[in-house]
Specification:
Two copies of one chain form a homodimer.
Chain A lengths: L8 H16 L6 H8 L3 H4 L6 H26 L3 H18 L1 H9 L6 H27 L8 H13 L13 H14 L7
Helix pairs in contact in A: 1-2, 1-4, 1-6, 4-5, 4-6, 4-7, 5-6, 5-7, 5-9, 7-8
Chain A binds a DNA duplex through helix 3.
Chain lengths: 196, 196
DNA sequence: CCTACCGATCGGTAGG
DNA sequence: CCTACCGATCGGTAGG
């Protein structure tokens, strides 16, 4: 009956790997790099994990699950499309900001997944994208969103939202919710003057 | 006095490398991979190029120059901000579509540049981003663009424009100029119904 | 968790 | 453009 908030060795490995995979990429970061960061030998890592592959899988699929749970919750709680979109983006930005290392690996290094896992991963991402497509469709039906190429719109929205891993600074002036609000504003009304 | 349209061995190497760097990433694609694609031995590559690094540098800096030339031309030819933005995006998409392999490497693999070259590369990208910032500012002054966080707006615009390397299909139904028009529409007026 | 090690593969060079 | 090769490093295993 441990009440300690100790983080398991396995999770320490995953956390360290996230940091190094983000910094140097999955291929360039070696098991020796990860081990030395933890003050142990590379061979010792294998008492906790099966392979380098496995680490990447855990990082990518954990994040995928987080994103999918968040969008499911939004669809449960909110009713109108604009609010759904607003909250989906807010959650998305929060998840990225809560663990920037893992989120960056999820977004940037997933290509290195082994081919079976890669297929599964891609299908989870499609599932996530599809949730956004449904929201946009709903907005069109509610007559609050313009009729657009929905696939195209979702790609554009997610690209902007995911791009924040490239510039987000936890010590910067914008907190995650502000970033989300700014993004949503941009997505909803664009750059052009409304009262021109 | 050769009139042949032959492509030099060096350029063949660069083209093949672009393809493989995009497909497998810079680190994972080996010199032996590139050589075998060309039907020669890995050692033979070094008669035409100095190092693997050099290939990446050539790809990244060639593209950087293309992008910078294009935006300079836009600023020379057009006057009002909206038209400048429209044409800048059109050129950007055209450059990406004209050589998807090289563009993808430019956008995805530049992190592997050696540290001196990386610094130079990042400064070229900042220069490019700055040209967009100037256009947005001009639009604010002309009272056609809303006042926004300019840095944020440029990041969002470029993320959407660059994301096309992830889904653009040369054999797909949308030609580059259509993609550019769609993107520009989205960026200018957003998702929300105007006549609600 | 360590020592000791393996086979494979890497970028690159020498010398022709 | 090739053969022959180098030192370095990789992910991972055996055995304790």
């Amino acid at each position: 009956m441990q009440i300690e908030t100790q983080i398991s060795r396995k999770d320490q490995i995953i956390q360290t790997a996230s940091k190094l995979f983000r910094l140097k990429s999955y291929e360039a970061a070696s098991m020796r790099d990860i081990a030395s960061e933890l003050g142990i030998e590379a061979a010792s890592l294998y008492s906790h994990i099966k392979s380098k592959d496995e680490i990447l899988e855990i990082i990518c699929f954990r994040k995928a699950e987080e994103f999918l749970n968040a969008i499911a919750e939004v669809n449960d709680i909110y009713f109108d499309a604009e609010e759904k979109l607003r909250m989906a983006i807010k959650n998305h930005v929060r998840i990225i900001a809560s663990d920037l290392d893992a989120a960056t690996v999820f977004l940037r290094e997933w290509r290195y997944l082994s081919s079976e896992k890669l297929k599964e991963f891609v299908s989870l991402r499609h599932k996530y994208e599809n949730e956004y497509r449904i929201i946009i469709h709903q907005g069109e039906n509610e007559n609050v969103f313009d009729t657009v190429d929905v696939k195209f719109a979702v790609l554009t929205i997610l690209s902007a939202v995911n791009w924040i891993v490239e510039w987000y600074n936890p010590k910067g002036s914008m907190v995650p919710d502000e970033i989300a609000d700014n993004l949503t504003g941009f997505i909803l009304t664009g750059l052009k003057k409304k009262t021109a």
